[in-house]
Design goal:
With 344 residues, the chain is α/β, with parallel strands linked by helices. Among the domains are: 64 residues, no CATH class; 75 residues, no CATH class. Helix content is 27%, strand content 24%. It is built from ten helices and twelve strands. Strands 6-7-8-3-9-10-12-11 form an eight-stranded mixed β-sheet, with helices on both faces.
Length: 344
């Protein structure tokens, strides 16, 4: 069986925000929010993008959507219907507009992302009207279909966002993102503002929609439990860089980077004897304005040696489809979620 088509290929993507000081706003440095990120997203699959707050994962999502223009690198997108692929990092806003129907975004805060002066019917109809996809009876039929797709009722169509719970608002956001039949959805921590039980509902809903229409997700999150349940492959980021990139199951069974092990050790465990196995990382995350030399994680790493402070490890393949940026990936015997009994 052949592999699914690559819809999105991010290659060596960088975003450095300039720091201005003085009366004349002289550039005195740069915040290296994203510093060389690469990955691929195939049709119908979910790729999890994980890391601590401030690691640059949301910036990656915004560059894909065209909200930020990359400093360098490529965001190759394959439109449907056999059109040639396009570098989203190298096109003008006018050229991006017709592509937005194929790449949609679900935001972290469902209330802030919905217009409080519009009813659910108006919110769902707007993208269809703006893109001249449907009108009249066809428009109404499509709006009703979207509401039912996300598990809401037709009586909700005439209500405003403030009348709904957080989970219901996020369902409305998902329905709006699905309105134009996109092939890629960038989900930026879509469950972080919701209760745990509602998080599970949103994730299961997203998986059901994926099974029905084959949409691909870039799922941005810091919650490893949700990421494992939702993602086929996972990218771990630290201070703007990829430190590990692998299929979900091998990654959780045997992480190869100390940062990944530390994150997994802090996931709640179902085994009482493993409760005290948490790895507490000392110090703060590296400064993206002035990252440390060598491996950016070495000041907090339990296994760091002298060369880690001077030589930056390349992202190398240690197993099929498993890439790690660590000098000692083949030597370290790290503990994964399966051994820890993580509740994921």
């Amino acid at each position: 069986m052949s592999e699914a088509q690559v819809l999105l290929e991010v290659k060596d993507l960088k975003k450095h925000f300039p720091i201005h000081r003085g009366v004349f706003k002289k550039v005195v440095g740069h915040v290296k929010a994203v510093d060389g990120v690469s990955f691929r997203l195939r049709a119908g699959e979910t790729l999890g993008l994980v890391g601590e707050s401030g690691c640059g994962k949301t910036t990656v999502g915004r560059m894909i959507m065209g909200a930020y223009r990359p400093t360098s690198g490529n965001v190759w997108f394959q439109p449907p219907n056999g059109q040639p692929r396009i570098d989203l990092a190298d096109i003008r806003p006018k050229q991006m507009k017709p592509l937005r129907r194929h790449i949609q975004m679900v935001f972290q805060d469902p209330f802030a992302s919905l217009n409080p002066r519009m009813t659910v019917r108006q919110i769902l109809a707007e993208p269809l009207v703006v893109n001249k996809v449907a009108k009249g009876r066809e428009l109404e039929a499509r709006v009703r279909e979207l509401v039912e797709l996300v598990g809401l009722k037709l009586i909700h169509l005439n209500r405003y966002p403030h009348a709904f719970s957080g989970g219901q608002r996020q369902r409305i956001s998902i329905a709006r993102a699905m309105a134009l039949y996109p092939c890629v959805i960038v989900a930026d921590e879509p469950t972080s503002a919701l209760d745990v039980s509602v998080q599970a509902q949103i994730v299961n809903l997203s998986l059901e929609i994926q099974d029905k229409i084959g949409v691909a997700y870039l799922f941005i999150s810091h919650d490893l439990g949700l990421v494992r349940h939702f993602s086929k492959k996972i990218v771990l980021m630290y201070v703007g860089r990829v430190v590990e990139y692998a299929p979900a199951e091998p990654l959780f069974a045997r992480p190869r980077h100390p940062y990944t092990e530390a994150l997994m050790s802090n996931v709640p465990s179902t085994r009482p004897e493993m409760v005290g196995h948490k790895i507490i990382l000392e110090g703060d995350p590296a400064d993206p304005i002035n990252p440390p030399s060598g491996c950016p994680f070495h000041p907090r790493c339990l296994y760091a040696e002298e060369m880690c402070a001077t030589v930056e490890p390349p992202l190398m393949e240690v197993e099929p489809e498993h890439l790690v940026a660590c000098h000692f990936a083949d030597v370290l015997n790290l503990t994964g979620c399966d051994a820890l009994g993580c509740a994921v």
